[in-house]
Inverse folding.
């Protein structure tokens, strides 16, 4: 954590005490909507932007996301001169209700972070938001978390401090200049009218000093916080834990679709789903938030490229699977080899135009079949559709890669590559499963 944030933590740590009680453990399942930020259903929807413009801004968000993740994975990786652009970093939004009486909140759903937090009043510094701030004093079920209690000690010791009345004060930074500081609390959180989706004692951050570097985007003003779905102990996923059988999944609809994507907790078993494949889920102790997979190679037609042995991707668990990054990110040499293979197998040349800021090829979609692109994860061959990996501009006959390389970045499997699959994270079984699915129907 930045020393500055730590100072803020000490400054703003004078509030009240309460008790925490654990939830009873029962198995339950429920499904909620995930709304892509650029979908017509999103409060951030801007109808004046063309698909190409949207894809282009997704590319630049992916870069800042990848830099952010790299910083958290390895603080020494990024030179100080690299500045992450001021970009709103969430891709999907979810709705929930908090407190008694329930207050509706709209937040970023993020598999790349852990804490659930909401902007609270009284606020020292908050990102501009349209709905009134959440006021814990108006919720009859809100309790603060004492600093010696379990939820507080689940925070890394650099992320917490004991307030003057023994309450848990947290500070959580996101690898760039974004952060949230506040009081750890417990309240009733409800994700839909489904009884299975009501939780009486969820721990969350009541943020009274928040800075999202992209909050200057006025369309952001519906956003009131973040729901961390990472693997760390305070994420929503971990808190629901045994109650959801330590499983969740999502099914993402194609770009521009009018349907919502779905986020399912306590998914039914995927074992008998047609075409399902599974690969080990790897969680590393130095970065407990991230979900890693092991990618052995990518084949295009009959040929294959493999991540190079003497690179950073040599480790077992060489790619993060993430829903908060649009583009797939690869380390430079592997990316270049992949581009060479695409040119060879598709018989295409790199185009001069690059409206999306990524590599585009001149490509005339005739009746000839598109070659098969397969991601070979350990134990799971995932066959990708054209639209998982490319954006095709029919008018310009341009086929643009939905992949980027970031010099300092950690490889990330982005959400475009996951569209059209049910992707299940089974933390108990230690695996991630992919099943080709029409997500508009499921
Ligand atoms: C609640 O969860 C159980 C267990 O997963 C499931 O059988 C039931 O259908 C769920 N109820 C609703 C209303 O979704
Ligand atoms: C759950 O959310 C619904 C809105 O979908 C709300 O009407 C209801 O009161 C909430 N239930 C609880 C127990 O807070
Ligand atoms: C989405 O809905 C709008 C209005 O209902 C319609 O004009 C548009 O064609 C739909 N788009 C898709 C991709 O179905």
């Amino acid at each position: 954590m930045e020393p500055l944030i730590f100072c803020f933590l000490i400054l703003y740590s004078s509030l009240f005490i309460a008790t925490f009680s654990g939830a009873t453990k029962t198995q339950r399942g429920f499904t909620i909507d995930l709304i892509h930020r650029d979908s017509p259903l999103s409060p951030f929807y801007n109808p004046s932007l063309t698909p190409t413009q949207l894809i282009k801004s997704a590319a630049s968000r992916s870069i800042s996301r990848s830099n952010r993740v790299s910083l958290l994975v390895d603080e020494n990786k990024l030179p100080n001169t690299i500045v992450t652009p001021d970009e709103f970093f969430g891709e999907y939004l979810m709705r929930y209700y908090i407190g008694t009486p329930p207050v509706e909140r709209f937040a970023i759903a993020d598999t790349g972070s852990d804490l659930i937090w909401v902007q609270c009043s009284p606020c020292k510094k908050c990102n501009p938001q349209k709905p009134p701030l959440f006021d814990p004093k108006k919720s009859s079920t809100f309790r603060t978390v004492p600093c010696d209690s379990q939820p507080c000690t689940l925070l890394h010791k650099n992320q917490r401090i004991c307030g003057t009345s023994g309450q848990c004060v947290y500070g959580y930074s996101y690898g760039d200049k974004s952060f949230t500081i506040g009081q750890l609390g417990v309240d009733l959180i409800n994700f839909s009218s489904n009884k299975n989706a009501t939780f009486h004692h969820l721990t969350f951050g009541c943020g009274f000093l928040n800075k999202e570097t992209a909050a200057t985007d006025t369309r952001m003003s519906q956003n009131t916080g973040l729901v961390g779905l990472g693997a760390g102990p305070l994420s929503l996923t971990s808190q629901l834990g045994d109650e959801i059988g330590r499983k969740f999944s999502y099914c993402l609809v194609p770009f521009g679709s009018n349907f919502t994507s779905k986020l399912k907790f306590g998914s039914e078993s995927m074992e008998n789903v047609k075409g399902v494949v599974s690969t080990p889920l790897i969680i590393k102790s130095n970065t407990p938030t991230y979900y890693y997979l092991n990618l052995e190679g990518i084949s295009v037609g009959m040929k294959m490229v493999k991540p190079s042995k003497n690179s950073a991707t040599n480790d077992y668990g060489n790619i993060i699977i993430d829903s908060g990054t649009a583009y797939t990110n690869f380390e430079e040499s592997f990316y270049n080899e992949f581009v060479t293979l695409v040119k060879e197998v598709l018989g295409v040349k790199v185009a001069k135009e690059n409206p999306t800021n990524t590599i585009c090829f001149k490509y005339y979609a005739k009746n000839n079949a598109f070659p098969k692109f397969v991601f070979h994860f350990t134990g799971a061959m995932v066959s990708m559709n054209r639209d998982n990996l490319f954006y095709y501009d029919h008018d310009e006959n341009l086929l643009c890669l939905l992949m980027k390389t970031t010099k300092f970045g950690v490889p990330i499997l982005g959400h475009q590559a996951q569209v059209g699959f049910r992707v299940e994270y089974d933390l108990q079984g230690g695996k991630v499963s992919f099943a080709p699915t029409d997500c508009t129907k499921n």
In short: The chain is about 15% helix and 35% strand.
